[in-house]
Amino acid sequence: xxxxxxxxxxxxxxxxxxxxxxxxxxxxxxxxxxxxxxxxxxxxxxxxxxxxxxxxxxxxxxxxxxxxxxxxxxxxxxxxxxxxxxxxxxxxxxxxxxxxxxxxxxxxxxxxxxxxxxxxxxxxxxxxxxxxxxxxxxxxxxxxxxxxxxxxxxxxxxxxxxxxxxxxxxxxxxxxxxxxxxxxxxxxxxxxxxxxxxxxxxxxxxxxxxxxxxxxxxxxxxxxxxxxxxxxxxxxxxxxxxxxxxxxxxxxxxxxxxxxxxxxxxxxxxxxxxxxxxxxxxxxxxxxxxxxxxxxxxxxxxxxxxxxxxxxxxxxxxxxxxxxxxxxxxxxxxxxxxxxxxxxxxxxxxxxxxxxxxxxxxxxxxxxxxxxxxxxxxxxxxxxxxxxxxxxxxxxxxxxxxxxxxxxxxxxxxxxxxxxxxxxxxxxxxxxxxxxxxxxxxxxxxxxx
Length: 449
Prior knowledge:
Elements: H1 3-35, H2 37-50, H3 53-60, H4 63-66, H5 85-97, H6 102-110, H7 114-118, H8 122-143, H9 149-169, H10 174-205, H11 212-222, H12 228-238, H13 247-289, H14 293-302, H15 304-320, H16 330-341, E1 354-355, E2 361-363, E3 369-373, E4 381-387, E5 390-393, H17 403-421, H18 424-439
Parallel strand pairs: 3-4
Antiparallel strand pairs: 1-5, 2-3, 4-5
C-alpha cells in the first residue's frame, strides 16, 4: 500500500474521531446545562470564600447578585454560573457596610431557617418557601431603609411580623423562629460591644468622621461576632492600606484579586472534572454506537472508496471552517450523520432485520436455514437477536465464545472512547494539518498531464 493510502486512512480515522468528539461535546454541554454544574461549583466556591452558609445565602439574595440569576419567576430562579469580580466586591462591601446594623443581623439570622424549611414535606415546604420569600423581602427592605429611625423601626416590625406568621402557619418551624429571635438579640449585643470599642478608640484618636473605607473596616470587625474566619481573611487583605481617598479603591482591588485567584483555581478544577466526564461520555458513546477503531481501520484498509469518501468529507469540513471549528447547527449534524449512514462504515451493533419463522429460522442466500440466536455454537447458528418474526443480525461484534475477538473489540472501543474524549478542537487542528500535507503535492497515482 502506498504512503498516500496510509495518509488517507489516517485522515479518515481522524475525521471519524472528530465526529465522535463533536457528539461527546454536545452531550457534555447538555449534561452540564441540565445539572447546572458550573453554577453549583461556583456556589460551593462562594460558600468556601465566605466561610458561612447563612452569609452565602445573604450574598446570593443581594440585588446585584439577584440580577445575575436566570429563570421565569422568583420561585424558579437559577443561580449564576459566573459572577464578575467587580460585582462580587460591590455586593460584599454593601453587606459589610450594614454588617453591624440590627436589620442586617436579622437578615443574616433569617437565612439559617433554610435548612429547616428544606427538611419539610414537599407540599408544606412549598408553602413555607413562599412565606419565607416574603420574610426575606421584608428583611431586605429593612436593610435598605435610609429614611430615619421611625421608618427603620416600622420595617423591622414588619420583618418580625412576617417571621412570626411563618412560625404560626408552620408549627414545625416555630422553635427555629424563636431561636432566630434569640440569636439576633445575642449577636446584636456582641456587635454593639465590638463597635463600641472601635468607637472609643476612634474618639481617643480624634477621628470622628467616618469615611466609606472606615465603615467597611467597622463591618469587617462586626463579622467577629458571627464569622471570625472571614473577618481574619478580610483584615489580612486590608493590611497596609492607609486612610486616604484611594483607600476604598485599593481595598476593592485586593478583594477582587482574591476572588479572581480563587475562581482561576476553580476553573482549573472544573476543567479536570470536565476531562473526566469527557472520558466517561466518550467511552459510553463508543460503546452505544459500536465505534470500534480497529474495525474501522480494517474497513478503511480494505475499502478505498470508503476512505476516499471520508477524505472528501473531511476536506469539505475544513473548507467550511477556515477560521476554526464553529458550533454546528442541528441541520448540519443531521447531514453529517446521513453521510456516515450512506457509507459502509462499521458503526452500530445490528443490521437490517431478516424475516424469521416461529422457531427462529432464517433463510440464507444459499437456500439453507440457520437459527437466529445470541449464542451461536456452530455453523448452523446465525448470530442475531430474534424479536417476533424478525431476526436482527449482530454486526461488527465477536461471538460470545470468541475471547480473542472480545478483547480486540474492547480495545477498539476503548481507543475510540479515549480519542473522543480529547475534544473536537484537538482533532480538528490535527485534521487540518493532515489535509494540508495531503493536498500539498500531486497524487503519485494520478497520470501526469
